[in-house]
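Morning!

This is the sequence you dropped in the shared folder:
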Amino acid sequence: EHTFRNRRNGLRADLAQILADLHPAFMRFPGGCIVEGMDLPNRYQWKDTIGDIAERPENWNRWQDAIRNQTAPQYFQTYGLGFFEYFQLCEDLGCEPVPIINCGMACQYQSKQLVPLDQLGPYVQDALDLIEFANGSADSTWGAKRAAMGHPAPFNVKYLGVGNEQWDEQYFERYKIFQAALKASYPALNLVTTAGPAVDEAHWKFAWGKFRGGTPADIVDEHYYRPPQWFLDNATRYDAQDRSGPKIFAGEFAAHEPRGKRNTLRAAIAEAAFMTGLVRNSDVVALSSYAPLFAKAGATQWTPDLIWFDNTRVYGTPSYHVQALFAQNRPDVVVPVTVTSTAPEPPPATPPTAAAKPLPALFASAGRDERSGELIVTVVNPFADVRTADIELRGTTRVAPDARATVLTSASADDENSFESPSKVAPRDETVKIAGATFPRVFPANSLTILRLRVRE
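The structure's back. Tokens below.
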């Protein structure tokens, strides 16, 4: 009976609260490969997920057998959490919804079913109807259905994803049809398109050839499930991104440990190093999100995940704390950072690959919080040794002597959280005394540090 925000048929309060504590800017739903379905009848159809919960049809979940030797026959979709509940949750969290719709293609890894181009009309109409359900007036056809569910006011959806990880010409010839229809009816809608299932491979190169060749795109969704070392090597990935092209959505990423794909501190800190590059390039990287978000212990065949729960308990992983710290300390204005070192570079915590790039001594980003007037300095040390640095603030000589530091680290890079020890890896706060615009700081091994400094320009 006790639900989050006391919503009727609402969400389990502790699960929604840990999500609220993350301070998300947006939430993508329902994914992901679930949108595609194993075949077209199995695809996610948003109209099945609204109205009386007791009358919503159940659907089986393609992840029951999508991973070889890791079947999950318990995977089903009741649609108890449908699009109305999703939009309502985003409103309660103060975040933007990023709904994803099927583009007339089933999973290209599985059945590869396609809707012929001349039969795509109902799929396009489903997308148009979804925006009317979310944003239409209460006297419109689909807006009236939203109002009947208890929300007369529009949800003001600003983003819509067309497909998930589809690739090559089969996707783009369908995307163009969706794009033309959606922009004709909703020109201000930001459309999220896809660059395929991975990056730096053939499908990704084909997609970017399309975008650079004139295919219209607002935001391009890129996914990376790679070892921790990849995230260190790619922290500068978007430094040279074309600023005149479409924006980037780092839509699904997670560092996957080579052995066991565990939610370790090592993986989380590698993600943090990568995210300093996302912050530094936030003029072109519009959105980013870890994936997957939730997993129920004993009822999943995919790891790692951000938040784990069972019937009565929930905990956040080290990666959860990384995401929360970046979200809670997101600057309004990015300022430049230079990292220099004269010391020889010791080996990284994770053995590099043969093609590994030279890494900086530390990973860093910085920006200004306009409301508090504070300078936010984010420093990541993904290495196995403690590192000491002089922080030199240029452009100011007036720094308050008291600063706040939040540090995420643990005794071992292999440390994980669990139901028994949910806070084994958790951030700790401290007060820092500063003598001026240049001051030393020790950065522990395998750590993320957030400094909030009160400065005057």
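Headline: The longest strand covers residues 447-456.

More detail when I'm at my desk.
O.
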